Amino acid sequence: MAFTKKALPKKSDNISQWYNQLVLEAGLADYGPAKGTMIFRPYGFGIWENVQKAMDVEIKAKGVENAYFPMFIPESLLRKEKEHVAGFSPELAVVTIGGGEELEEKLIVRPTSETIMYDAYSKWVHSWRDLPVLINQWNNVVRWEKRTYLFLRTTEFLWQEGHTAHATHAEAYEMVLWAINMYENIYKEFFGMAGYVGIKSKAEKFAGALTTLTFESLMPDGKALQSCTSHDLGQNFSVPFEIKFQDKNGKTEHVWQTSWGLSTRSIGGLIMAHGDDNGLILPPRLAPIQAVIVPVDTQGTVVEYANKIADVLKGAGVRVRVDARDYETFGFRINDWELKGVPIRVEAGGREAAAQTATLVRRDNGVKEVVSLAKLAAKVQTTLDDMQHGLYSQNKAFLESNTSEAETYAEFKNIMEARKGFIRAFWCEKEDCEKKIKEETKASTRCLPLDAKEESGNCVYCGSPAKHKWLFAQAY
Amino acid sequence: MAFTKKALPKKSDNISQWYNQLVLEAGLADYGPAKGTMIFRPYGFGIWENVQKAMDVEIKAKGVENAYFPMFIPESLLRKEKEHVAGFSPELAVVTIGGGEELEEKLIVRPTSETIMYDAYSKWVHSWRDLPVLINQWNNVVRWEKRTYLFLRTTEFLWQEGHTAHATHAEAYEMVLWAINMYENIYKEFFGMAGYVGIKSKAEKFAGALTTLTFESLMPDGKALQSCTSHDLGQNFSVPFEIKFQDKNGKTEHVWQTSWGLSTRSIGGLIMAHGDDNGLILPPRLAPIQAVIVPVDTQGTVVEYANKIADVLKGAGVRVRVDARDYETFGFRINDWELKGVPIRVEAGGREAAAQTATLVRRDNGVKEVVSLAKLAAKVQTTLDDMQHGLYSQNKAFLESNTSEAETYAEFKNIMEARKGFIRAFWCEKEDCEKKIKEETKASTRCLPLDAKEESGNCVYCGSPAKHKWLFAQAY
To answer: What is the ipTM of this complex?
Structure first.
């Protein structure tokens, strides 16, 4: 088969075409047959498995245990918390037939599990001794979406959802903060992505929450991505669901609750954040394959040498693949792994086999280096670390250089037209201004950063007094 | 709180009451609000996590990769393979409303994923170079069941389903055998359970398969449990789904397929197989907690000493919990962990703290032994190994001593009335005899063991010539 470089649209020209074609061609995902659904192919799912592995350790270290709740929620349960059901109603998938018969009560396929879990919590919690309840689930949820994008917005997606119940609000809020900090750290250390942590406005918060904390990252097209959330639910669910406990003094109280989740949408963010015109660039800690060995020849001693290199790297704990496909050219194979974003490519031919060396090529900057086999494992490990940190630094610099201040609404509009990104601006916290800004500029409030100081200024839209600068951006 | 031993029904008196109450009281599971659904509580889900960990390694070592396919299957896809849809039709849950609107095409919640996966395979497979396709999923599936039992039969359950496509039937059949052998080994090494591997009769095989291999274990009440299956699908799906490939000679062929699955039902079998009148007995390799440290006093130096013991055991890689609940008596705490089936209990009070010793109690045989702290980790590890192997030996002995031979139908009926268990008997392989035996004795054909030799005899029911002794049993 003659080598032809696949015509991937340039990321710099049209990121949305680049994204779609890359996701399909790199074998990350495919469209499912039902509207808005997607198939996570092994290469894309492998990234999610690495996210799970990293996060599950943190979740368990906090004392939160995994469990599994049914995905079918009787309609009556969902209706118990009014704001919650109103928020999710337009997005529900409903089972009306089971075992060949029309059901007496419709079953909702969970869009999130607050209601079904808290119904159970109300049976399990009686006294302070039963608290805290610290439970997490890794599962699938369904939200019927009109417009879908692979990974970023699909009818069914995968996520973890943590749900805790506590004796005091202070203890619950500590958990809400812990979760968002844990996510920020996972994004930093594994996704190589920076972002802003803050509080959502009333209009943008989770249906049923007192407060929603969010982690907002920035995509190359200047749009923000809400990358995960952590909710202070207060007693909004424990009152209707009657999750009550006797405290140490024998008094009956309602529990204080939290929920927090990170989904497979995060992989969409990852793809956008780090790719380039040649394809994907995967941060080493999430890459299903960290180093691919591409022998120049696809038989004989060169392949043996490639396998030897692979063994050396495997022995050092590197996730390795050897690509000796004899029906593809060397050029095709190289481009294929570039497209797939494998962090390090190791090339070797007959000369390298004789000299016991190999050429190491970094995916992020294309730098090539000839390394002796004896030093290869150490070199690969430091290079993987370098890349991991380099991707984060780059992403953080991008975030910072694309965060602007706007004093006036004219400035605000100019930035949103010209370069987008995050804008820091005073807002009076009235919903009406927020709504109009969104209508006129497509930018919504993303969050009030947790570290924002109280200042005094004037709302960028209406001019009335304002205490805080909020972050605005157009969003996915 | 005064200590009262919970009134668990005796396993020996009424295994089904014992089972239900134990599952609830040990915190393994609870009933979900929708009919036939269950909640996997952390303690029960922890067992499943250990099964996943063990099996995922084996699956990946075979080169099978994890992926995720949508759970909604358009009705038209399910209808493509006629025997398959007929087999599952009575059990389907159907989504008819999405995003507030009646759907144009109904969506089936997957009862298994053959059809949705093979629709994708037909797009991915073009030539022999794309083969084999080796994909596994860990997911949730739904089969509407009239009668449900926690773990053993629930509307929604969790499992893994492996689905492979090959260029030749021989290669596919090797995979079918690999899977059932892998399962048998996982049952032996992790569940501590023995069973029979064999071929299902035509009436009992999977809807759409050429051949179904099964692993059948035996429950203490003498009933068999189909514990997992591995299917040779032949070309039964590749023809209607048009999964075609060009072979090395340029000829177009249909692929040969397999599917194989093990579900959370296996945990139901585990509970039944190993419990006793005092509760659960967990095989150490699947136990979420392998050793519980129960200090006699619940404060002061004794608790410090308990934590010290825990650190020593954690350091040796043992999964440990310290139970110093100050609102429960020592007796209550001991019984609670006995009920929960934790393999080893380590008791210590002031005297033990002073002497740097502890009392080690085995859950399986109740044997107590005083061990010095210096030798505790090694002793715990060998005891866990002993228990793991001991449970298997016991289960294997039970299986063998409850497998009978029946020459005549009178004998067959007597055994099924008196002691049940497996019966080895000649069967002519006519469906009519199989059906009548089931109607008259409640015993169905479980399998033709893979190692069964061809013999010559007469059908235990009709007397006509028969070549093989099949295994019969009443089943869950």
So the answer is: 0.96
